[in-house]
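Reply to dn_fold:

You asked what the input looked like. This is it:
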Amino acid sequence: MKGTLQQFVQRTLLKIYEVNRTNRLSFVTAHNLDKQSKNRKTGSRETNDQEKVERDRKPLHPYKKIHPWKSIENFSQDLIDNVIYNKDGVVVLNKPYGISNFSREITSERTKWKPMAGISNSVNYTLLDVLPKISQDLGYPSLSIVKSPERYISGISILASDEKKAYAIKKALSRAQCAKTFARSYWVVTTKLPRSNSGELNLAIRKKESPCKTYKQPIIVTKWGENEVKRREVKTFDVCYRTISTSDGNLSALMEIQCFTTKWHAIRVFASTVLVSPILGDNIHGSRVKKLMGSYMHISPFVDASRQIPILQPELLKKLNLQQSQAVIIPAHIHLREITLMSFPSRGQDLKLVAPLPHSFQWTCDQLQFKIPTGNEEVHNEMSVAVAQ
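and this is what came back:
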């Protein structure tokens, strides 16, 4: 009996000892794991802090510096510093990308559209906002906008000091159109090589209603009726285009497009559907062309895929230092490069205006290694104005 009791006590003590030993080991193990976890967290925070410092040290991507102004005064002064022409009541500015001519309240509802544009630190300044400041600094009682590209096209904006000058400018532009002479030249960068390098076409653009009859999309047509033109259901236009340079690796092209109209995004739609080569940064009509089974094909402008951010070639994205997820910040590469005012300011003399490329546009050209000719910037006569890049 005594032996049995001693055995029971021994077993009980051993059991308690093992449990305590296990608890001690578990506590030590848990303590060590917790300590390691804290070290990892501390190291992770230190790593994150280091990565943040490194990111801050990295130069900001050029596409994130499109709107660098800190105030409307700074914006106004920047425009004044970049005046292309100022003589006899005519002032020509190089309008930045993403700047409207008028406020949204004044802009017609029919012409409003909301592209998926990711302008970093975008400002809501308009040309109208700074006209008083520009007028005062340039010594004019007032200035009005005569001709200027829409918000998401950079380039030449023409201002006039009075109605007489404004009328003369409009007359010079209409004179060129009547003479079938292209007065405006746009430079664009495409996402691939165009179907043809050059050509001149007579086309028309119209709005086509969606199958659900809830909205319309612009399309290019090659046949139309005179009654459609009279009813303003279609807009006819001539277009002339040429490839200025191709990129390193033939990934894209720098092109000049001369066109009589930009109505209904005519240049964007023309590039996507006729050239089968969308404009870089065009998030409105750039996805009308998709690569299927190794070939580029048109898709309906009414399917969801046509309204997505365009999927760019990996090689092209690499040259632009971007990932596909960052494609939304790419500005639409459309620049109103040149305007010629026929028989202005007097008969027999043409005034040629050339606008330098925006910094982001020029950076893209450098990254893609385009060869930009200098012949377009030569002064052909004493009334021509050329601004060096």
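Confidence is low (pLDDT under 50) at residues 16-31, 105-113, 376-389.
Hope that clears it up.
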